[in-house]
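Hi V.,

You were right to ask for the full record rather than a summary. Here it is.
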Amino acid sequence: MNIYERNFNRLVKLNIINQEGALQFKEAFKIQNKGYMDLNLDLLRCENKDSYVIAMAHNYEQHGDTMCDPDMEIKIFPKNKMIEALTFQQDNFNIYQEVYQGDKVNLQLKKELNSFLELWLKNLIDQGFKLDSDKGEYWGLRA
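Predicted structure:
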């Protein structure tokens, strides 16, 4: 099993997606876990019938500004049961990184971001995060 498949399985454990790769929230969701920063989830876009992109972030407020700590865009491939890190943002260090820029792929960054995502997802599982619609908070839903 490769890192993309392991990370897919970790999103399943967090109940963010189901075994088939379908999102377990509609548009946006906040997972609350006492003692930790909320985990914010947003559906960003469906690129085609075979993939979609979500954002996953911890945020805090500093001097009235919302700060990412961190924020990642993640592409989900339900048919292949794989996910891939696309971006990483860490505001307190003024970092913003993109794996794909136009037709160029930064392979070293791709490896680093997927490894970081693997560790972050493992930590979230170990900390007891899990999407539960009765304990979290939906927002931004369209009528």
